[in-house]
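I am still getting used to backbone structure tokens and would like to learn alongside you. To get us started, please write out a protein record for me. Start from the sequence, derive the backbone structure tokens from it, and show both lines together. Once you have written the record down, we can walk along the chain together:
***
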Amino acid sequence: MKKTMLVTGGAGYIGSHTCLEFLEAGHDVVVLDNLCNSSEESLRRVQALTGRTLTFVNGDIRDRAGLDALFKQYPIDAVIHFAGLKAVGESVEKPLMYYDNNIGGSVTLFEAMQAAGVKTLVFSSSATVYGDPASVPIREDFPVGGTTNPYGTSKLFIEKILQDLAVADSSWRIALLRYFNPVGAHLSGQIGEDPQGIPNNLMPYITQVAVGRRAHLNVFGNDYSTPDGTGVRDYIHVVDLAKGHVKAVEKLADGPGVNIWNLGTGHGYSVLDMVKAMEQASGRPIAYQIAPRRSGDIAQCWADPAKAAAELGWRAERGLEDMCVDAWRWQSMNPNGYGE
């Protein structure tokens, strides 16, 4: 059944890929984005790829009057909430900015949703809510908390706010999607990850080295208790991740409540594994140097994705080679990203 989705932060990396999947699934999409770390060009390309139009509203989730006007103007059925600052290192340096934007903005959004009677929400959460896990792979019933940076803490608090909201009002339908590490790009090479300034995530940094935009990769720490000493993460193709949001909205039609699903592959790869895979995908050497560990980083983190497979009928289908080949196609076709 066709629905109208409000996608906050929809011009960003994961948001734009998710907008594309919703359009291709036959839904209508309204994007709210303040473009602080994204480009409207991504949405132009999403429309070109799908042959469908979406509605773009330049606005901020902290602007209650703007949200109220948006909910009055469009027949929103569900909200996909991506809007948030997401750099771990920056969150350690600027915690107030992260708490204001991520938590304050989310509370304002939920208040506006409640006032408008829109109570179906998919929240873009993170594996960071698990903190430094006692063991891997990580299941949804693992303890949360012990977050190691304000970014992760903001995700944890928003999850808790939503759980409390569902206790107070049992008509809410909420999905908390705990992502692992999204990488890759759409097969077309038209949309992908385009961070402003120095990338905070590994894959865009590696691809920018490969394409010649940066001299070398800094590998933060090679003394972790992992096979090669570098951090191990569960990298998931952004297209698989985007498809998980469509599945989550479909599942929320079953009834109210709070649902938690890990979106990961169930496999961990080290930083040096990723460097080697990108060297193969790009045919270029990736220069790197070892740097001190970063504050807030943990040794290893990967998902047990069995619950999403059982309950959503969702699983990651694209492997490491696809992730690297697709990321490289995007970067080599768009050496300066969206170029704005």
